[in-house]
Amino acid sequence: MIYDGHTRTCGLIGNPVEHTMSPLIQNFMAEETGKNMVYVPFHVQQGDLEAAVKGAYALNLLGCNVTVPYKSDVLEYLVDIDPLAKRIGAVNTLVRVEGGYKGYNTDMPGLYRAMVHDGVDITGKKVVILGAGGVARAVAVMLYDKGAEGVILFNRTPEKAQQIADEVNGFAGADFAKAYALEDYADVLKEEKYIVIQATSVGMHPGVEKVIIAEDAFYDKIEVGYDLIFNPANTRFMQLVSSHGGRAYNGAKMLVYQGVIAFELWNNVSISRKVAEGCIRQMEEARK
Ligand code: ATR
Questions:
Q1: How far is the CA of 205 from the centre of ligand 1 (A)?
Q2: What's the gap in Å between 24 CA and the centre of ligand 1?
Q3: Most buried of 50, 69, 111, 288, CB within 10 angstroms?
Q4: CATH number of this structure's domain 109-250, picked from the four choices 3.40.50.720, 3.40.50.2300, 3.20.20.140, 2.40.50.140
Q5: pTM, whole model, 2 decimals?
Q6: Which residues surround ligand 1 with Cβ inside 6 Å?
Q7: Do domains 8-105+253-287 and 109-250 have the same CATH topology?
């Protein structure tokens, strides 16, 4: 790509940003689609977020991604917020509009696109979520939004899962989400097989030998297991899912698709599956 007077800039606002894969993915898509865009990381210090968003607008930036620790804090500096992002309470993508930026959440639509890519259909299914942090909550909202029949949340601290269930049921209807303690799985999972989304940090590098539930009987219930962790690439959870005959995926594709959707929003284009697969390969190469 040759940059010139027409090049548009996008970037990542976060702290830290040094480990990010987003420039690789975004600049690859720009190259593949011939868009005159460049994507760079912006390390924004605590306390500088408002100035950064205003400055981005003043500098005519086309858009930004927002990462840790600013995904919720950024909400107050936006001129508009997409309804799904509002419901999730976190924004990871800013799109330039009249007078400022509109916030979107592409993390969860990214997970959904990853599932579509993998041929996993959640329509009319009761989907299991492990964990009750911010990520688990966002997954529950997305599953409602995309047509799952219900979600079953399991968490070490069941009260936290119940809090998410109450919140989601507030807009989804009384029985959409149910919450339990981890050890209750045997009594609760009555159907043959489930799609399970592992949304805790258990098993993440360096604690790679850890897994949220260790018992074999749990893994006999899993048809598809998503671990939202992507480091390591094959978590203990995924290994257990696979060894019991289930299909196991990590969070890398979700990461790619959140970037794909952001690129589509900024550039008003559709990214093909082939280009998305190219992004996945780029990321795998870079991680070697
Ligand atoms: P995030 O907002 O990124 O989702 P979080 O709020 O720290 O992160 O949530 C982490 C999740 O991992 C929680 O569900 C947590 O369980 P608790 O609610 O009981 O704290 C879960 N988690 C973390 N370490 C765990 C462990 N060793 N065993 C079981 N669950 C664990």
A1: 15
A2: 30
A3: 111
A4: 3.40.50.720
A5: 0.96
A6: 131-136, 155-157, 160, 200-202, 212
A7: yes
